[in-house]
Amino acid sequence: MKKVSTFFRLHVLSCLSVLVIWGCTGTTAQSNNEDKLKIQEIISQMTLEEKAGQMTQVTLEVVSKGKDPFNIIQPLELDEAKLRNIIVEHKVGSILNCGGFAHTPQKWQDLISLMQEVATKETRLGIPILYGIDAIHGANYTDGATLFPQQIGLAATWNRELVEAGAKATAYETRASSIPWTFSPVLGLGKDPRWPRIWETFGEDPYLISEMGVAMINGFEGDNTADKFRVASCLKHYIGYSTPLSGKDRTPAWIPERQLLEYYVPSFEASIKAGAKTIMINSGEVNGVPVHGSYKLLTELLRDKLGFEGVAVTDWADIDYLHTRHRTADSQKEAVRQAIMAGVDMAMVPYNVEFTKHLIELVKEGAIPESRLDISVERILKLKMDLDLFEHPVMSFEDYPDFASTKHQQLALDAALESITLLKNNKDILPITKDKKVLITGPNANSMRSLNGGWSYNWQGSVTNDAIEAENTIKEAIENTLGKANTIFVPTITYNEKDVYSAENKSSFKKAVNAAKSVDYILLCLGENSYTEKPGDLESLVISENQIELAKEMAKTGKPIILILNEGRPRIIREIEEVSEAVLHAYLPGNKGGEAISQVLFGDYNPNGKLPYTYPRFENDIVPYYHKYTEQLPPSDGSVYQKSLFYPQWEFGFGLSYTTFEYTDLKVDKTELTSSETVKVEVTVRNTGKRDGKEVIQLYSSDLYASITPEVKRLRDFKKIEIKAGESQKVSFELPMNKLAFTGRKLNKQLEAGEFILSIGSEKVSINLKDSKTDI
């Protein structure tokens, strides 16, 4: 068939579309109708092979120079023969990944320009490539890009506006790299710290996750993803991925359906309503069914109930895993059939085109109707149009003067500062005055890698220390603040190549003990090295023995210890907390983390972060704050163990400040309400300290009695405010009663009449719901 110019054909279609919908006053409706006509015209001309190709995504390594995808030549260059084989011969429509290393924006532009040149000029229909990347805390696979705190740190800010602004900057710098699609945000329920991807989540609370997820999507996508400064977001990982029973990555999850609907669905539902363009599917299985093969989850729940209309993409090689890991398919071909019929639109293959071949065969054999492919291809082409790839398949780096700008760097610093959470401060030992002398030690004291975590310059973040020169580690930032004369750095514990702790520590401990004799404070920088996914699986949640030993040795010196926690998940540290006068939790604060920690330590910034999860005290006591009443009661059988069963190290939402806040006069505008009404809640917050400060006002509800055992409390809303020393503010919330609904026994949302307690801080007020309502 003779090739027809896509640009010419779409231009004609645009003109025809105007005639067809002449008189339509809504420009958005007109544009949508035009795009639909264009897409239908393209699909009508597509061969089966072209449709299957559009549903295929391969990794960058497949089209790069080298003996094979696992041995590509560095610095990376495209192999034009391989590229044409993938795009022209096999019609592949999407490429992802970074080839193992970050690239400059100009390099990205060169790589993607060649891909788009081949796709738009050498294929029959000229459909552009859709490129995707894991830009999860900034454009983290682009050299020089602004790197923000990881999601768990952003959650600790409890600042919707800041999260949206950071995502907007990330979108800008990702588009500056000619990449229009980011695999972010993660919306999993991060309530099990054993899971190695807890730091990629927004924490344990469904409402906090929902609010932060929507803020991030708004920042990524804005009102129009065709904007050259915006990208398409991708919700991860639908659904139930974040709480495997074993705590180990990609192992089975067992989640009762009622709990799935009550705790796991809300964040995805909110983000779908916010307009998220794509969604990535959970690599694991839920209740014995791999999600990639679940029609119930991918079609009945995701499409029919939640109303998602965008592209559903697999995670890495997960269709093959239906055969090789989950074993629900006796062949890779059967795996393709299961996944496509369940509702998958695009397969992240990623190393070959076997998926494409199997899909074509299945259609020819009648096992999959071609009309099923049309549905997915329409979604994919719509996404490409929504991103303006047909008109502008490549960006020009020169159009992005704010790439890594001072403005973006300040935003990253602001996010790092607001994320830092002060968990302990005995006798107001912090902040430290700048005339003091300090000892800095611990494995994270002089590491950019531990500040950033995984997905930083490469998958595991292992090259971060070499990739960054201009930014400061914790040690360097403190030296810049106090001067080298007042800082002593003694390297003690280090990480070996396998990311575990080396045993060569004993002699270095003695050096640190001797150095402590001449200082006023010990800054103990502990936590974890970078990791993600399966390499981050744990044998024990307790922090490593040699870090505990180091802390105990430092405690013997009698000098006050300031513990600086820099970790991706809450490791058990109760023995270290006991010997520390202060605890500062930095999570994974990104490139500006060292500077942010220094500003907080020495009083240049008043900390205001709040925990986005419950920090456990014991390894066998991992309980979220929204536990049931039976999970907090002590034994009643005369046992000597009489502590509450809910006994964390620190509770969800906790965080100290260098000032103090007092909550008074909590009131509601009415105490008797119907299910259709909204209650106005007001509280007075006073800054009773001597410093200006920010505070997160958290509104909780407690359902006293219900047909499903109620939780002790649930977060319903929050606001972050700033109050000057000595001043007060009235803070109000409007709480629709339907927000108090829960998933009932018949799996519908329902409200039940009765008493509820609303609480902010230690203040409480009672309201009464006069009627019940189902199917909310």
From TrEMBL:
Q: What is its EC number?
A: 3.2.1.21
- The leader peptide range reads 1-29
Q: Which GO terms describe its biological process?
A: glucan catabolic process
Quote any Pfam family the record assigns. Answer: Fn3-like
Q: Which UniProt keywords apply?
A: Glycosidase, Hydrolase, Signal
Q: Name one GO molecular function term.
A: beta-glucosidase activity
Supply the enzyme class, top level: hydrolase
Reaction it catalyzes: Hydrolysis of terminal, non-reducing beta-D-glucosyl residues with release of beta-D-glucose
Annotated Fibronectin type III-like domain residues: 695-764
Q: Mind telling me which InterPro entries this protein's record contains?
A: Cellulose_Degrad_GH3, Fn3-like, GH, Glyco_hydro_3_C, Glyco_hydro_3_C_sf, Glyco_hydro_3_N, Glyco_hydro_3_N_sf, Ig-like_fold
Q: Which Gene3D superfamilies match?
A: Glycoside hydrolase family 3 C-terminal domain (3.40.50.1700), Glycoside hydrolase, family 3, N-terminal domain (3.20.20.300), Immunoglobulins (2.60.40.10)
Q: Which family does it belong to?
A: Belongs to the glycosyl hydrolase 3 family.
Name of the protein in question: beta-glucosidase
Organism for this UniProt entry: Sediminitomix flava
